[in-house]
């Protein structure tokens, strides 16, 4: 994961990484402590690792951040701060952006590959042509153009977009896990499913994920291989959106 820092930095994103095995994990304040106290041991370690990852991501773009409480299951950040958090196999990652209020944030880490049978839970018939069963390796930070996607890659792209399309106001308030928005508005809990989004190819091995109910609402996603898994993250609103449309 650390090898991806320059790639994300070039996109204006900070990367934070934490693990559940770090010694002495402690809440950063009373709100985090109260939230963690009600959780089973494994979930508590994941929760605290995610908060550490978020603070490290914010620090990577020059922003400090104390405790990060939650609203339901969603992280709530102080004004002027936002990050997207993901967990997989005991590792927590987060991405943050220093500038650009209203720009989307979203990431997803999947270290356990999904079987082809999971495609029906992620894709609709009009997306199945994107699938490729071949397991062709490629370097971290890139993927070959003109090839199909694995179920895990498409799942990660949609999951990252699911978070981003709520946190910025680009999508409906029922989607997301990017935390508190620039105006202090908190998104509602996610509803629906990833099948309510449609993914398609874009330039340079990227993909565009759109809301089916409103295709003008879209984000560009990059998915890269990380060991046996993948990491997906939002770059920006789709170029098909104008600057004003990105803030609907």
TrEMBL record:
It comes from Streptomyces plicatus. This is Enterobactin synthetase. The lineage of its organism: Bacteria, Bacillati, Actinomycetota, Actinomycetes, Kitasatosporales. Residues 32-96 form the 4'-phosphopantetheinyl transferase N-terminal domain. PANTHER family: ENTEROBACTIN SYNTHASE COMPONENT D. It comes from the Bacteria. Signal peptide: none annotated.
